[in-house]
Design a protein that fits this description.
alpha+beta; five-stranded antiparallel β-sheet; four-stranded mixed β-sheet
Length: about 575
């Protein structure tokens, strides 16, 4: 009876895990049930530990490399998740090598012919048969258009989609089994992780996604003084083929060549990093893989940024939380840091609030009173992810990607300028992002969100009170109430009060000024118009009124938090 491709691949995965001393992992993933009898006995005999000469992280890396492109990329993704895995594993997984061989040019030419409906010679004036670069999904060839433009042509390797989709389906099935049978897998939401990885890999299979990313970056950075994005040639791009402008220049790691060309490396490092940080804090859409191989210095001193297969996107709310976190770290405000972290990394299960607060204070003690530009951010991020993992807080994929991107950005900038400080650039860009947070549009949006939160809070409180009454009726006066259960509610009460005051007061101020401006334009009155003074007074009065209304919310939240603190 013939074995299906899925069954054959599952057996191969089992064999590789067991041969690399990872039989226990194979058992936790439910692979023993589908393994041949010999393998099943080896898995069961492994018991609770894997016995092998090499350390566990090394054995895992070897297994992933042996299993091929999808598993290598999975390992590369996990290498960025210091909030999930011990540092020994994430460090080892960063050494993963995606060793793939190029396919014959005849196969590449056939793909181009099928996609464009014409011969390669008709599409390009010239194309090199030898690839410029080779990856697991595709390979790149240098070419020239008929008008003389130098380009790079990326072509997806034939047959790669079928093998990738097979592995992704197997991974999703294994994740579902692990979530049922393995408590650690449930704690890290393995199904959510694999789901996000699945979506990322499927996007990578379609070059139209990368083309759209490149065009979006070109629009966002159209006025940027330093960074340039290669042009995409849409008429010569499909889901399987991507044609873009060739980014020719000096490698940013070649200090001697840059110095000989008269490049101000210090200024370039600061300007390019400022642009990358602006992508995050202002635009919300960022290049997630800014390593030296994706940047080249042009003859005019500007910087090419290439390869847009890996990107991240942050909502305005997440960007606000990041800015608040940076400011809270600078201000040594442990409560604000803890609140920002809880918003950025929602906990998986219960959080010991006392231990979490203690860990946050210990984290802040490591930076002392240093200004943001003086903090060693790589070391700080490493300690931060340890705090998150210890307290079962899990970063969303794009925020985790952001931390990795910031570390890469600093390392790349240091290649240009050994004295570079990422914190210095963050300190420059944060006020710009903060100004955007308090723009009229953002304030109106925040006021709407505060109203929605207030409604949700109003729905939650009766339910909590009803549960307390039910508990009282069933158990009498010996009601056990864990203050930690109320702390998130207290934080939300206080936050709603603050947002109502800030959002609604500023919104009313904007409306009043707009009406004053319209009246002045109509009546031709001067700056000392009494109406302007009246509008200011009315705005102040409205602010006072709102503060009086929202004040009890803030006071209630603060009182709850004070009551939950242990006596000293």
């Amino acid at each position: 009876m013939p074995v299906s491709p899925h069954a054959a691949r599952t057996r191969r995965i089992t064999e590789v895990l067991v041969s690399n001393g990872l039989a226990v992992l194979a058992g936790q993933l439910g692979l023993a049930e589908r393994a041949p009898e010999t393998l099943r006995r080896r898995i069961l005999a492994a018991g609770g530990t894997d016995a092998a000469a090499m350390p566990g992280p090394v054995r895992l890396r070897h297994a992933l490399e042996e299993l091929g492109p999808v598993f290598v990329k999975l390992g590369q993704m996990l290498s960025t998740r210091d909030d999930l895995l011990p540092s020994a594993y994430t460090t080892e997984l960063r050494h993963l090598q995606d060793a793939t061989r190029p396919v014959a040019f005849s196969e590449i030419a056939e793909t181009i012919r099928e996609e464009f409906g014409r011969d390669v010679e008709d599409a390009y004036a010239h194309i090199d048969a030898e690839p410029l670069a080779t990856a697991s999904i595709g390979q790149a060839h240098r070419a020239r258009l008929h008008d003389g433009t130098e380009v790079v042509v990326k072509v997806r390797k034939p047959g790669v989609e079928e093998s990738v989709l097979t592995d992704l389906e197997i991974l999703r099935r294994l994740a579902a089994v692990a979530a049922r049978e393995w408590s650690l897998a449930r704690d890290v939401d393995i199904e959510g992780l694999i789901g996000a990885f699945d979506r990322s890999m499927r996007r990578e299979l379609d070059y139209r996604t990368e083309a759209a990313n490149a065009e979006r970056f070109r629009d966002d950075l159209a006025e940027d003084p330093v960074v340039r994005i290669p042009r995409v040639f849409g008429e010569l791009s499909t889901s399987l083929v991507l044609t873009e402008e060739f980014a020719q220049g000096l490698r940013i790691t070649d200090g001697a060549a840059l110095d000989a060309a008269g490049v101000d490396r210090r200024a370039l490092a600061r300007a390019a990093t400022r642009t990358i940080v602006k992508m995050v804090m202002v635009d919300g859409f960022f290049h997630a893989d800014p390593h030296p191989g994706n940047m080249f210095v042009r003859d005019d001193g500007c910087l090419w940024l290439i390869d847009f297969g890996m990107t991240g996107e942050l909502t305005s709310t997440v960007r606000e939380d990041i800015v608040r976190l940076l400011l809270a770290v600078s201000a040594q405000d442990a409560e604000a840091v803890a609140a920002s972290l809880l918003r950025l990394a929602p906990p998986r299960g219960a959080v010991d609030s006392r231990r979490f607060q203690h860990d946050v204070r210990a984290l802040l003690d490591t930076v002392g009173t240093k200004a943001l530009q003086d903090i060693d951010l790589q070391a700080f991020f490493a300690r931060l992810t340890t705090v998150l993992r210890r307290n079962h807080l899990q970063l969303p994929p794009d925020v985790s990607l952001l931390l990795r991107m910031l570390v890469l950005t600093e390392s790349t900038a240091i290649a240009l300028d050994p004295e570079f400080s990422l914190g210095e650039v963050l300190a420059e860009v944060a006020p710009v992002a903060l100004a955007q947070m308090w723009s009229p549009g953002a304030l109106l949006r925040r006021a709407r969100e505060a109203g929605i939160q207030a409604l949700r809070l109003g729905e939650e409180v009766p339910a909590r009170v009803q549960r307390l009454l039910d508990d009282y009726e069933s158990r009498g006066v010996g009601v056990h109430l864990d203050s930690r259960d109320l702390e998130p509610l207290a934080v939300r009460i206080e936050a709603v009060g603050d947002r109502l005051v800030a959002g609604m007061t500023m919104s009313s101020l904007i409306i009043s000024i707009g009406r004053v401006a319209a009246t002045r334009a109509e009546a031709g009155r001067g700056v000392r118009d009494p109406l302007l003074l009246a509008a200011g007074g009315a705005t102040a009065l409205l602010g006072t009124y709102l503060a009086a209304g929202a004040g009890p919310l803030r006071a209630a939240g603060r009182a709850l938090k004070r009551g939950m603190r242990p006596p000293r």
